[in-house]
């Protein structure tokens, strides 16, 4: 797998990265995760699992890993893995996020798993925490799920602090979620253009069920931003249970698994720098990587495009998925 620039950030990444959302904490909303991980969700068991999948990712050529303060111990698991393997800081590009705090008490059935706070105090606290864990390995720091409602893109104190961190060599970005992803991306582009904060990267949900951010992501890419795509498998909806017939038909015709088709659909967009694998097993990771060998035909992409749901419908469904 060849490395390539993440927009104009100066960071090197690979077309597939590894996301730690489902590996860093005992509960998450991916369908089928309960059977994938089994009943042992101890810190030790999940750290071993994380290291196994990270090893497989590195062996496959993956050189971008995505964590967050709210992904349980994801940063600590990545850091302990890198130290155990003796990797120098630039061996893998590591990104993390601030803005949510993990409060799940290491329980799958926690009533609340994470709490949102986009204040200046939260940024300063979480940046210090991330740097304590990852040290100089931390290369990219993103606002976690920035929204118009939180006001973070209008908070001049936060923007100034982000600009200060950028001046110190940290690449600053944002992730977005929800039915107004495109609006948030375009507002962030306006903020950057006004010189208030040097955003250089954006991470968004894009999959064949929820492609609404595509136009805004293309604009961000054209502006030189790095573009990462998360939730390419729609939290398992594209590969578990009632797989959409269009995905299943193309997968059967190619003799491959549905995950490869869903990931190949993301990679078909020329504005994508990295699509994240959310694998929690080595087999899943290896299968995801095989998406790189698939080139979808225009008629395949047209067929998949017909799966798109109204954004409000997609995000309502997502919010109802159980933590397992």
Key terms:
single chain; alpha/beta; TIM Barrel; 40% helix; 324 residues; 8-stranded parallel barrel
Short description:
The protein is α/β, with parallel strands linked by helices. Helix content is 40%, strand content 17%. The two termini are 32 Å apart.
Describe the structure.
The protein has 324 residues and is α/β, with parallel strands linked by helices. The protein has a single domain, classed as NADP-dependent oxidoreductase domain (TIM Barrel). The chain contains twelve helices and twelve strands. The strands form three sheets. It has an eight-stranded parallel barrel with strand order 3-4-5-8-9-10-11-12, surrounded by six helices. The model has no long low-confidence stretch (mean pLDDT 97).
Beta-strand content: 15-25%
* CATH topology type: TIM Barrel
Q: Helical stretch count? A: 12
Q: CATH homologous superfamily name?
A: NADP-dependent oxidoreductase domain
**Could you give the count of β-strands?**
12
User: How would you state the average pLDDT, rounded?
Assistant: 97
Which value, in Å, is the CA radius of gyration? 18 Å
CATH architecture: Alpha-Beta Barrel
Structural class by secondary-structure content: alpha/beta
Q: How many individual domains?
A: 1
Distance between the terminal alpha carbons, to the nearest Å?
32 Å
**Could you give a short account of the major beta sheet?**
8 strands, parallel, barrel
Which class in CATH terms? Answer: Alpha Beta
- Sketch the topology as an H/E string, one letter per element: EEEHHEHEEEHEHEHEHEHHEHHH
Low-confidence stretches: none
The coarse overall form would be globular
Q: Helicity, in percent?
A: 25-40%
Q: Strands of the biggest beta sheet: in what spatial order?
A: 3-4-5-8-9-10-11-12
């Amino acid at each position: 797998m060849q490395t390539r620039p993440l927009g104009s950030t100066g960071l090197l990444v690979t077309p597939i990265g590894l996301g730690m959302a489902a590996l860093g904490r005992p509960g998450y909303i991916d369908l089928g995760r309960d059977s994938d991980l089994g009943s042992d969700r101890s810190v030790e068991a999940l750290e071993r699992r994380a290291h196994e999948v990270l090893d497989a990712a590195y062996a496959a050529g993956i050189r971008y890993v995505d964590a967050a303060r709210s992904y349980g111990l994801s940063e600590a698991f990545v850091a302990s893995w890198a130290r155990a393997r003796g990797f120098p800081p630039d061996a893998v590009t590591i990104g993390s996020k601030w803005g949510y705090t993990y409060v799940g008490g290491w329980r799958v059935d926690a009533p609340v798993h994470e709490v949102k706070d986009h204040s200046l105090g939260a940024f300063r606290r979480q940046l210090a925490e991330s740097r304590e864990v990852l040290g100089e390995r931390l290369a990219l720091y993103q606002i976690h799920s920035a929204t118009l409602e939180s006001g973070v893109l209008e908070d001049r104190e936060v923007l100034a602090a982000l600009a200060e961190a950028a001046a110190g060599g940290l690449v600053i970005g944002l992730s977005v979620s929800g039915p107004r992803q495109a609006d948030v991306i375009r507002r962030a582009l306006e903020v950057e253009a006004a010189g208030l904060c040097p955003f250089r990267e954006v991470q968004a949900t894009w999959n064949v069920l929820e492609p609404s951010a595509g136009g805004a992501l293309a604009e961000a890419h054209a502006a030189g931003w790095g573009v990462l795509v998360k939730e390419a498998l729609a939290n398992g909806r594209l590969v578990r249970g009632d797989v959409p017939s269009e995905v299943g038909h193309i997968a059967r015709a190619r003799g491959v698994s549905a995950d490869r088709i869903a990931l190949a659909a993301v990679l078909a967009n020329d504005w994508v720098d990295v699509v994240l694998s959310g694998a929690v097993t080595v087999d899943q990771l290896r299968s995801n990587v095989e998406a790189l060998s698939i080139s979808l035909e225009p008629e395949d992409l047209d067929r998949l495009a017909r799966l798109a749901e109204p954004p409000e419908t997609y995000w309502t469904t997502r919010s109802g998925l159980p933590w397992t």
